[in-house]
Structures are given as structure tokens and as C-alpha cells.
């Protein structure tokens, strides 16, 4: 596949991430902060989001497996996840976190468990989609092209 085809594929792929509400304008703002002095800025920030999210999802899973659930602690983890997903523009993760926090406030165990599964699914989706996008970008650069804006 030539560079122009890869670039077109990347543009279409990015558009689909916005059209499916997987990403929002915050991700665009994040990309605008990247420049030639820091060409890996977005990948680095998103990698930190992945690490942080996986830690928080593990903490949430453990917390919700307890006999006596500490809803304040669960809510604090969900609040962190909501903030970090918002900061990279992971819109669908953020929206599930809002519902999750409502379930924490109501101390709704079943609702929290459902939201945990939903947030895991949305996180997994955004992670897969962003990793695919980054691979496409790498293919373009390896072929001598530039990343279309």
C-alpha cells in the first residue's frame, strides 16, 4: 500500500472515531500540542492513560468484590478514570463513568457491577482503536510519508 492510500486510510479511520463518539474534540486538542520538539507526545500521554486506566479498573474490580463495598473508594477510582478519559477525549469511557458515579452515590451494587463491565468494554474499545491508529501512523512514517492533519 502506498503512502497516499495509508494517509487516506488514516484520515477515514480518525473520522470514524469521532463519528462513533469514541473520541471527542479533547483528543484533537491533545494532537495540537504535539510538535517536532515532542513528536511522540500523543502516544506518550495515551500510554499513560492506558497504564492508569488498567490500574484503576483492577482496583475497581477488587473493590466491588468485597463483602462490604466502600462506595466512597469506588467513587474516587471512578472519578479518576473519568478525569483521565476526559483529558484524552475518550468520550464513551467518560460517559459510562458518569453513570457509574451515580450508582456509587446510590450505593447500587448491581448498577456498579454493570457499569464496571461497560467501562471495561468501552476502555477496551478505545484502546484497540487508538493502538490501530498509532500503527497506521507508524506505517505512514516508515513509508516516508507525513501524518495528515
From TrEMBL:
Main location: cytoplasm
Molecular function terms, GO-annotated: histidine phosphotransfer kinase activity; protein histidine kinase binding
GO cellular component terms, A-Z: cytosol; nucleus
Transmembrane regions: none
Sorted UniProt keywords: Acetylation, Cytokinin signaling pathway, Cytoplasm, Nucleus, Phosphoprotein, Two-component regulatory system
InterPro entries in the record: AHP1-5/YPD1, HPT_dom_sf, Sig_transdc_His_kin_Hpt_dom
Compartments, record wording: Cytoplasm, Cytosol; Nucleus
Residues with Phosphohistidine modification: 79
GO BP, one annotated term: phosphorelay signal transduction system
Chain ranges of the HPt domain: 38-143
Top-level taxon in the UniProt lineage: Eukaryota
Coiled-coil annotated residue ranges, if any: none
Free-text note on domains in this protein's UniProt record: Histidine-containing phosphotransfer domain (HPt) contains an active histidine that mediates the phosphotransfer.
Function: Functions as a two-component phosphorelay mediators between cytokinin sensor histidine kinases and response regulators (B-type ARRs). Plays an important role in propagating cytokinin signal transduction.
Listed name of the protein: Histidine-containing phosphotransfer protein
Source species: Corchorus olitorius
